[in-house]
Amino acid sequence: MDVLPQLPPDTAPLEHQVAGHFYGRSKTKFGLLQRCSTGDVLKPLLNPPRGPREHQFYDNIFSDKISGEIVKLRPFLPKLLGTYQFDGMTYLILENIIQSYEYPCAIDIKLGRVTYDCEATPEKIERQIAKFEPAAEIGFQLLGWKTYRQLDNSYIYHDKKCARSLTKDDLLYGMAHFFGAPEYDHRPIVRAVLERLVALEQIMAKQYEFVFIASSLLIVYDGKNRENDNIKVDVRLVDFAHVFPSSSNTEPDENFLFGLRHCINYLKMLIDDKFQYISIDKLDHTTNLSTSTCYKTLLK
Ligand SMILES: Nc1ncnc2c1ncn2[C@@H]1O[C@H](COP(=O)(O)OP(=O)(O)OP(=O)(O)O)[C@@H](O)[C@H]1O
Ligand SMILES: [Mg+2]
Question: Percentage of residues in the chain with pLDDT exceeding 90?
Fold first, then answer.
């Protein structure tokens, strides 16, 4: 049996994680953790140069020395709170952006038509493309989401395998499902998210310093407060293991922007009056719980 890495004191696997390395389930068995007393996220810095590159990027963005358009990106990132060493592993300590939500619903959307960097081997490139072929056309892919349903006090979780089985048309309904369809009107939440995405798009269109390969949007909202007056949403970027200084310094990151703009277009389709939800069989896991990593849990 595989031995799990020892958990640092006062930590547990990250609650409400929807994608990426899950503690105990990833190949290395390392995964994201949280500090029980504060809720802060601990992200292990795995596979050099990936982990150290992400650390370097956070350091750059939050450094006093940087200026210009890139500073405006700070509100779209979790804050870097420091680093922590335990048992030979270094962890980034990050602001937990989900912690303040009573019934958090979260989705991880990886951006970019190209999700491999210039260091990738031909095999790696092939693997990345095969993971979700429509990404080359639409520039984004869903990696997983969880959504809360107040009607039966449940959470429904879909993993990346399930998300990647969707066609580019199915994706629209997958996203609608994340935002509450068909039980609830998804539009007020989508409108609030769109506002944040458009603000992010404006910043990214003017920053020429970095290229973001395979970074994700983490979109969060509160599943209980769906009325216009008390909607709570957040949009952040996470995962900077493949962020590089731009080689040109005169052009925006078109690969990232292409994906972001397509994602915005999908959400605009969702708020169109003519949009009608169609349920997707591949997302119906409620009858097949034991064989799937997608599941529905009833809260007590
Ligand atoms: N600051 C945060 N607050 C709350 N949840 C987070 C935060 N950062 C990450 N997460 C959760 O963890 C998941 C994975 O995060 P991330 O993409 O950074 O890790 P990873 O994919 O395992 O890393 P890498 O690809 O660099 O090895 C996200 O989809 C999200 O659910
Ligand atoms: Mg990730």
Answer: 77
Strand partners, 106: 146, 220
Q: Are 69 and 259 in contact (CB under 8 A)?
A: no
Would you state the pLDDT for residue 1? 58
> What atom of ligand 1 comes closest to residue 238's alpha carbon?
18
- Cα-flanking dihedrals φ and ψ of residue 207, to 5°? -100, 130
Contacts of 269 (CB under 8 A, 6+ apart): 172, 275
Peptide bond into 13 cis (omega under 30): no
Index of the ligand 1 atom closest to the CA of residue 96:
3
Distance 207 CA to ligand 2 centre (A): 22
Range of the domain at 202: 104-283
The number of angstroms, rounded, from the C-alpha of 151 to the middle of its chain's C-alpha atoms is 26
Both tokens of 270, joined, read: 């969702």
143 shares a domain with 90: no
Q: How many domains does the chain have?
A: 2
Mean per-residue pLDDT, 233-241: 98
pLDDT for position 264:
98
Higher pLDDT, residue 102 or 283 = 102
Looking at every residue in the chain, the average pLDDT score rounds to 93
The CATH number assigned to the domain holding 239 equals 3.30.470.160
- 15: domain CATH number? 3.30.200
Which residues approach ligand 1 with their CB closer than 6 A? Answer: 14, 17-21, 32, 41, 43, 46, 50, 54, 78, 94-98, 106, 108, 216, 218, 238-239, 241
Residues 230 and 199 in one domain: yes
Asked whether residue 116 falls in the same domain as residue 197, the answer is yes
Probe target for ligand 1 pocket from 105, 238, 243, with the most ligand atoms within 8 Å of CB: 238
Instruction: Classify residue 68 as exposed, middle or buried by CB count within 10 Å of its CB (0-12, 13-18, 19+).
Output: exposed
Judge contact between 204 and 44, C-beta under 8 A.
no
Q: Helices 187-204 and 254-271: crossing angle, nearest 10°?
A: 160
